[in-house]
Design brief:
Layout (H helix, E strand, L loop, with lengths): L7 E10 L2 E7 L3 H7 L23 E4 L6 E2 L10 E3 L3 H17 L9 H6 L19 E2 L4 E3 L9 H6 L9 E4 L6 E4 L15 H5 L5 E3 H8 L9 E6 L8 E7 L2 E6 L13 H5 L11
Length: 288
């Protein structure tokens, strides 16, 4: 259950965000209030269809009367709360978080993070010329998806999607400590030997490309991935009667990946292995 699910219908809370009065439902968060007020707030570990885990700290804000900055994605709004989202303290904190991430992780495919780094003037070169990553080869075990730990920011989104928030498979978790921390299967076994059911919900929530479709990975390697040219068509999955919505991403008249709307009442953005990966029958290889 996400924080948004815990709202109290009809009960309002009045807060002030950057001098602007805002009303939100009781139980909603500061981030909800920011969105209502049109205040753009960076997030990495937060998703509307997942439980907040408060690990990235890039959404922190300053609240009058609080000694420390607070994560807006999980802090419930309280009556009379006065919030500052663009103070010097907030800007400095967000800049430092982004610099630390960029100094240790390859963010070249993190399309939502790059603009925020520019916005806050994050300079990762202060900590070295290139990211100090895992320096591991990309893990490719099948034709479904790949794992590139040099792009992983440990946002926990994949862990949450594999666990209570969606799949309830619990195939992965964070293993190791410090710079050795990484997403791993139990006892670091190969995927076919783990509890993984290949639903791909981990890919659907990954913000950096650490987990991505094998089709996308191959096209990127061939310098042929052109997301700006993609058309996205919403349809209903044909495999069963549940009614999951699919978003078909098409490039050059070919389906290249499938996602699902996070606000869809049936899927909440999550799919099974058939919905996520079973679209090849639409475009079978030419028979010889």
């Amino acid at each position: 259950m996400t924080v948004a699910d815990k709202t109290v219908s009809g009960t309002k809370v009045s807060i002030t965000i950057d001098g602007q009065p805002v009303e939100v439902d009781q139980g909603q968060t500061i981030l909800d209030g920011c969105r209502s007020a049109g205040v753009d707030t960076p997030t990495i570990c937060y998703a509307d269809n997942l439980t907040p885990v408060n690990v990235c700290r890039v959404c922190v804000v300053e609240v009058d009367g609080n000694r420390t900055l607070v994560p807006s994605c999980s802090r419930p709004a309280e009556e009379g709360m006065v919030v500052h989202t663009d103070s010097d303290r907030v800007r400095h904190s967000r800049k430092m978080v982004l610099e630390f991430l960029g100094s240790g992780v390859d963010l070249s495919q993190a399309t939502e993070i790059g603009p925020w780094m520019d916005h806050y003037g994050a300079d990762t070169a202060r900590y070295g010329e290139s990211p100090e990553g895992m320096n591991e080869t990309v893990k490719i075990q099948d034709d479904l998806y790949i794992r590139d730990y040099d792009k992983c920011v440990l946002c926990y989104k994949c862990v949450e999607a594999c666990g209570d928030d969606a799949q309830h498979t619990f195939a992965i978790a964070v293993a190791g400590r410090g710079f050795d921390a990484r997403i791993s299967t139990e006892f670091d076994v190969e995927l076919p030997e783990s509890a993984c059911v290949y639903c791909g919900n981990c890919i659907g929530v990954c913000p950096t490309g650490a987990l991505q479709f094998k089709s996308e990975f191959d096209m990127r390697e061939a310098a042929n991935w052109r997301p700006e040219e993609h058309t996205v068509t919403t349809t209903v999955c044909s495999y069963c009667g549940v009614g999951c919505n699919l978003e078909l991403h098409v490039q050059d008249d070919t389906i290249v990946k499938v996602t699902s709307p996070a606000d869809h009442s049936v899927t909440s953005g999550h799919l099974c292995v058939k919905g996520r990966f079973g679209w090849q029958y639409v475009q079978p290889p030419t028979r010889r």
